[in-house]
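Pipeline run #58 for the internal structure catalog. This entry was flagged by the ingest filter as a single-chain record with no existing model, so it goes straight to prediction. Upstream metadata was stripped on purpose; only the residue string is passed forward. Reviewer on rotation: M.T. Logging verbosity set to normal.
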Amino acid sequence: MALLEVKDIKKKFDNTEVLKGIDLSLEKGEVLSIIGSSGSGKTTLLRCLNFLELADHGTITVDNKLIYDGDDPSFRDDKLIRKNRLNFGLVFQQFNLFPQYSVRDNLTLAAMLTASAEEKKDKKKLKDKLNDQADELLKRIGLYEKKDNYPCELSGGQQQRVAIARALMLTPDILCFDEPTSALDPELTKEVLKVIKDLKNSNNTMIVVTHEMDFAKNVSDKIIFMSGGRIEEYGTPSEIFDNPKSPVLRSFLNNALES
C-alpha cells in the first residue's frame, strides 16, 4: 500500500487551469523528484499537497486515510486543514526562517504551538523536551554550534539546513522541498543536497521540486516530468533520463543538461 496516493488533482486560478488532473503515488522511504519548465505546475502541485492552496478537484490519501477530497466541502474546514497539513513538511526556496528568533527557537516554535493540551500543561517540561529534539536535529545537520545564532548570522546554505531541520521537528510523513537550492550558489547547493541525500539514507519519504538534474537522476526513486499542468512522463531515473519518450521531455533535458 502506497504511503501517498494523489488522484485527479485539478487547480484553477481565475480562468487559468494550472493543474489538469494529476495522479501519483509514493511508497514509504521513496524520493520523488518533480522536474519541468517554469509555469508547468510543479510548485502549485506541492502547495496543494501542503494545503497552502486547496485543489478544486481530486483526492489526497496518506497512509490509507483520505485527508482531502476537493468535491467535499467538509475537507475545507480550517481546523481540519491545519491538522492534515501536519502530514507534510515543506521547505521553501527562500528559507522563510523567523529573523527575530534564534536557530533553536525557529525549530521549536511550531512544535510548541502544535503540542497537545496535555503537553502544554507543563510548559517547562515541554520546552526542555523540544529543545533536546532541536539540538539532536541540529547535530544531525552539523549546526549545533549555531543554535543560539540568528538567521542573519548564517550563510544561505546554513539557513536552508535549519529550514530542513525545522520541517523535521514535526515528524511529517512526507517531507517536501520546493527548489531548495535555487537561491544558493553552487558550493552552498552541495551542502544542502548532501543533507537531503542523508535524509534518504534514513528512510525519509520525500518529494523534491528541483532543477538539479544530477540530483534527480542519482537520488530519486521516481521522477515526474510536468508540462502544461499535466504529467508528461512518470518513471524511474533510468526511464526519464536514458529513454525519454516525449519530444517535450527530450527537448527539456537537452536544454537542462546543456546549461
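catalog note: DSSP finds ten helices and ten strands in the chain.
catalog note: The two ends are 39 Å apart (CA to CA).
status: ready for reviewer M.T.
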